[in-house]
Design goal:
Layout: H1 3-10, H2 27-36, H3 43-50, H4 54-66, E1 70-75, E2 78-83, H5 86-96, H6 105-131, E3 141-143, H7 149-154, E4 159-162, H8 165-170, E5 180-183, E6 194-196, H9 198-210, E7 214-218, H10 221-224, E8 228-232, H11 238-246, E9 257-261, H12 271-275, E10 281-290, E11 293-300, E12 320-324
Antiparallel strand pairs: 1-2, 3-7, 4-5, 4-6, 5-8, 7-8, 9-12, 10-11
């Protein structure tokens, strides 16, 4: 095996993507990964290995850092660089590289399947800790009801909008992709995207809500401040897909509420069946007559409700409301 083959392996490039590698990373960028050889090096050390001037090396390293091809950290008082991996590069590309949408459909499908599998493997220890009631290094996601939006936004100073990597990768629905928000200290030098005012952020989230996207943010936002907000679907969103696969409803993401259905108010129009991401509202087998018209009965299975709250606005007859769960987690409004 050649050194470049070793570098491709250490960079974590999936085998199916190797023939297309030039679409993701240039020869010079791959050569940098090869010459780093799994080590952490300063810019002057890298300049020697590449045969570049220090100025050229610093410009090149910044470009590679922006694309997540390399990462950097301070070590013993010096700034050092080390190789990233293909997973991080793909995350950057699907959001910000204009050529990514032009790739072959089959290749993008393979990339989504591979990326989801890597995500699931990396999340497994974290989910196991949550399921076992063990301490974790970050708060899990929590569903946010839309009426809490103003409270969330009032707690932040800086807001950054970035595309949803999940919908960019999966492409399973036509819902908006410009929907992910980072706040304050969670905005890093590689967050990119564009800054929003509170008013712009509110309008964006309300639009996402109308499109049927659920809202998730860090569950410790009331005490430590909001860090992020994702506006999610169940067909593309990696965390939601994984939660359904692993059966972590109520734990990841945390649910504070569940839907309450008053059948006596229901017009059986079926709007909620289209809105619900989890099949909690569905068409039953029986029928009834409503205002002279025969309609199938709308049914509700509370065991399938995840407490996202997006069903409420769909119900014109006000037959759906959100009630707090008695799980010791909810924070009722005063």
């Amino acid at each position: 095996m050649t050194t470049i083959d070793n570098s491709i392996s250490s960079f974590g490039v999936p085998e199916f993507a190797i023939p297309y590698l030039s679409r993701f990373i240039s020869e010079y960028e791959m050569d940098l990964v090869d010459r780093l050889d799994g080590q952490k090096c300063t810019a002057p050390e890298i300049a020697v290995r590449l045969g570049f001037s220090l100025e050229e090396t610093q410009v090149f390293l910044q470009s590679c850092y922006n694309k997540h091809i390399v990462h950097k950290e301070e070590l013993n008082g010096e700034l050092v660089y080390f190789a990233g991996d293909f997973y991080d590069l793909l995350d950057y590309m699907c959001k910000f590289d204009e050529n990514y949408p032009l790739m072959d459909k089959e290749l993008k499908q393979a990339l989504d399947q591979w990326c989801y599998q890597v995500y699931a493997e990396r999340m497994e220890p974290y989910l196991n800790s949550l399921l076992n009631g063990e301490a974790v290094d970050r708060a899990p996601e929590e569903f946010m009801l839309i009426e809490d939006l103003d409270d969330v936004l009032e707690r932040v100073s800086e807001i950054r909008l970035v595309p949803c990597n999940c919908r960019k990768l999966a492409e399973q629905c036509a819902k908006p992709v410009e929907t992910c928000l980072s706040f304050d200290d969670a905005i890093k030098d590689r967050t990119f995207g564009r800054s929003l005012t509170r008013e712009e952020a509110k309008e964006l989230v309300m639009t996402a809500h109308k499109k049927g996207l659920m809202h998730q943010l860090n569950s410790d936002w009331r005490t430590n401040g909001p860090a992020f907000m994702c506006n999610c679907c169940s067909c593309c969103c990696y965390p939601t897909r994984l939660a359904q696969e692993k059966g972590t409803k109520g734990i990841f993401p945390i649910s504070q509420f569940e839907a309450h259905y008053d059948e006596t108010k229901c017009s059986h129009c079926g709007a909620c069946t289209k809105r619900c991401n989890f099949g909690a509202f569905y068409w039953g087998e029986t029928e009834r007559v409503v205002k002279g018209k025969t309609r199938r009965n709308v049914e509700f299975d509370p065991s399938k409700c995840w407490g996202c709250g997006i069903c409420v606005e769909a119900c014109g007859s006000k037959a759906i409301s959100m009630v707090p769960l008695d799980n010791g987690l909810n924070h009722n409004k005063k």
